[in-house]
Amino acid sequence: MSEGVKRSAGINPMSAGQMTELRRAITGLDKEEFQRLSDLVQNPELFSEEISLLLPLSIKKLFDKGEIDIESLRGLVEQVLEQSVKQNPRSLANILFPIMMPAIRKAVAEDITKMVDTLNTSLEYGFSLKRMGWRLQALFSGRKYAEIVLSHAYVFKVNQVFLIHKSTGLLLHQVQDADLQQTSDADMVSSMLSAIKDFVQDSFQRGSDEGLDTIKVGNFNIWMEQGPHAIIAATVEGNAPGELRLIMKEAMEAIHVNLSYELNNFQGDTEVFNTKDRFLQNCLLKEKKEVKKKPPYALTAILAALLVALGYWIYMRVDENQRFDHLIKAINSLPGVLVTDSYKQDGLFIVEGMTDPEVGDFNSLVLNQGFDSDAVRFQMEEFISLDKQIVLKRANRLLTPPDSITLSVKGDTLLATGNADGEWIRFAENRAMAITGVSFFQMRGNVIHSRHEPEPMMEQLERSVLAIENYYFVFEFGEVQLDSLQKEDFDLLITEVKTVLNFDFNQDSIPAIEIISHTSFSGNPEANSAKAQQRADRFIDFMIAAGIPVEVLIPKVVFIEDANDGLPVRSVSFKVKYVTPASL
Amino acid sequence: MIKKKVCMLGAFAVGKTSLVQRYVKSIFSEKYQTTIGVKIDKKTVVVNQTEVDLLLWDIHGEDDFQKVKSSYIVGSSGYFIVIDGTRAETFAVGLELLKLAQSAAPAASCVFLFNKADIKSEWEITEKQSNEIRTMGFEVIETSAKDNLSVNEAFNHIAALMLK
Asked: What residues 30-59 of chain B have any CB closer than 8 A to a CB of chain A?
């Protein structure tokens, strides 16, 4: 350079001393210092060594001034770590090993403890409906089952949470449940806890990372979570879930991340820790015990009484209706009664229908069903019933038979069986036909003659003739045989026949018995006639067998023209005729 | 709010507990001293218009059978070394505890309390020994818990030292 100056300017070259003087004037550096700087700039190795001496101090100052913060470095550090792991993962693993192993060990131990807690709780609650409800709630809400359990299952309350500076034992901050009324001085409690922790660690020679986790006194617990510079201690009443430990751990981590500098350089001023209140607030969990409401005994009793009354009323109504139904059925089953309607009106049971006068009243039936006689009102119209029982009742009332006579109704024939005096028999014969439902009267028995008034011969004959002519026998279709009852009647008939045949008061004529077998034109008249003839012949055979001479027996078949003719179709009746012997 | 941890150190029966008993807020019984070896008390003082809560760790008196745990001293901002003026042997114990405290809490402030000043005529501790302590750079305050002599001053003094 000195040569160039010399040539271009054409001035005298500067001496070395002058150059040194000029350099010092411009830069303030002597030749050695200037050379050192020049070497530094030109030699990267030397330059980097020089910078490395200044860099840590510069970074510290930038931190102190707040011009570099953790956030701005995070990305860079993460990239560096990522690159380092990619290039040589073993190197980072070796660095982290002394830190990670105790941490992993502790985490595993805590997870096992938590699992045992959860298992205990699970066993305690068992497979209950409540537990199933929680699972359904977790399913539908999308929340973790553990969260649901946390908010429902455990009966516990975190009363206070302390943030304690680890080395001094001083209380940095504390939060407490709003319901907590009286508390001991938190500063002293914190220091005492710290002292107890130190005592345990010293006494059992545990490392600083294996400190006291839990102090348990009956139902009261102190849960402690230790970080590098602080301790979180929570006073818990009841059985807290393992998840509380996790929440405390997260709070501890958050506090250390956010207040690392303040914790490291703590000089007794706790003001700054009040700003991180929310981390401790997160630990203030509680689960209120489900308060079983006192059953509303009075209301229950009233409702029960009302229910009983209502039940009784319903029972009474149902029972009353059932009894009324039974009453209606009983009345309807009576002969000579027809119920057309039954209902309840204005508290009274009304029965409408028709009844024969022979039936009488229904009081006994009403009382039998448990009703008052006034409770049931009968609105019945009278009618004449042809029911056999009613006809019999009517006949008994009108004919007033003696005790030796029993009346019965067969078809439309009134039968009088037994012994009676001639006067009653004549009375009955005259009145019987006038009884509604009676078309014929038949006397089966003997006439009782009083000692003072022997029955005249002719009257006795007439009565026997009349008795014979009142007999008739009805047969089923195609039937010619007598049943047992008809055989009894037949024996009585033979008695009357013999009585008539024994009379011999007129030599010009003798009695003959006409056996009239009735049939109809319906169907096959010829077959009907043949069957009717068979029945007549059968009677002749019976009579002959009973000692009646064949000569006085005259069979006859008669076709019934009119259904209202009197005698039923397929029947056999008898008539007494007086004929000359020559005509037989 | 400023909070400071202060330890009360001294030989057995030098009057540490008596010094704090009447002048501080206390919720724990003395049985803690014989069980876990420390009892926590609290005294609030005002220094230069700044309120300071002193958390006093009343550590059991050291004797041949029970040694003070250094972990109780760790983290202290200050400590009193209490010497019974009527018992010469407590001076030596105090110096031993000073070494322990300087090791456990090197940055902490220290104040020596020569207690039982109400019966100074019975003292075995000499002025020479007081000067020896002062020569080491520590303040010596003669106190009497019984007569409330310089007790509050002692607390205020150590608080002021800690806030420097």
From this structure: 32, 36-38, 40-42, 52-53, 55, 57
